[in-house]
Amino acid sequence: MVGCTLSRRIQEGSQHDYHLKRQAPMLLMQTEEVQLVVRQCRQALDAIDDCASSMNSSLGYLDWVSPASAGFCEEAQACTRQVASLVETGRDLFARLDREQVAWKEMGKGFQPVQINTAYLLAMAGGGTVGAWSLSNLLPGFSRLTGLMNQWINRLPDWAKKLISKQLPVDQAGDFLPPAKTGVIPRAWLDKNDNTGDQQPISPVDENNQNRQPAAEQVNLPSNTNGQNESANPSQSTETKEATASSEAFSVPVKSQKGLKADGKGTDYGCVPTSASMITDYWHDRDETNQTLSAQDLVNMNIEQKDFSADSGMAINKLENDLEPLGYEVETITGTADNAADQLTKLKSAVNEGPVLANIHLGLTTNGYSHAVVVNAMTDEKVTYNDPWTGTTETVAVTEFDKSWGASFGLKYPVRNYVTIKPANSN
């Protein structure tokens, strides 16, 4: 619902000054959504109040004489009074929320507006990103308010909770953080009591499947012409415990992004170069005249071109600069949140011509970190893809894949993105 993104240089500054006067931050808050939530929740509160009033009126019409009648009526009236009190508390809280978003708007007027272009959006969606800060660092009152709201909601009767919950956004991240670095969980998400503002890269954690087996050990790939070692599992190929999406699945070598280095240190942001390397290996295996590059070579090239950072990765649209000189046709396609069926059909057509790099959420979730994978087979029911994060091949239902592929990466960021990589002489 609410987010704030700052450049990495600002992130490394003092928690109190953020170097805002020296750097140009990009701030993002979906104030329209906050206003909508406030308006709809106020309407829900009115409905709850009406229910409590009707209940209280009905009690006055009861014509019931028994030893238990007096006690029942007293308890029922106490319940309606409690609901009425909670309604008034809720109205006050949502009024404060409305004032907070107005204060955020006023604060935002002091910052220089930033134009968001397609290249930047692709960087965010393709694995590259900027650091993320909790809104609580900039607007502490907002976080205090959300805590009060949680306490208030927990005190509501179940029927009233349902009325309110329908009006709230689906994603209620505790720190209101936007999608952050691919493959790394910010420290603030792991330690809510850490007020240092430190979000340096830490050991990656897959919160959705912490029991998942580690990626395969490093072995030499026959198709790797430069002789470098890469993490891979050739025996896995496109075979999985489930049937693959199609008997025509492409035999794309499976590689893990584990072990990649950038500027002499390890990096957890190698999903894009690793996925691209899998695809060039596939085309090289079909025809040795097709050149291939290791993931490490792609990392090194993009560091030299200043398109790759050890702490943020690279954008999917930068692959054109790397692969077109090698004789590949590279096209980056960005999608929308609408017309899912049409876009799935286009992806299937692209996969029929060769493996495709697609951008999903890490762990095939519907939120969190963007992640590049290689789709090597697709039918109307199933999708088979190589995941460089785990070094494995997975087969899932098309609907499950699309939930992650088509899920939002943040306000105005493109969804359903993919890259086709084919030898120029393949047509």
Automatic annotation (TrEMBL):
Span list, region Disordered: 187-268
InterPro entries according to UniProt: Peptidase_C39-like
Domain (Peptidase C39-like) ranges: 252-389
Pfam families on file: Peptidase_C39_2
Biased composition (Polar residues): 196-213, 220-249
Protein name per the record: Peptidase_C39 like family
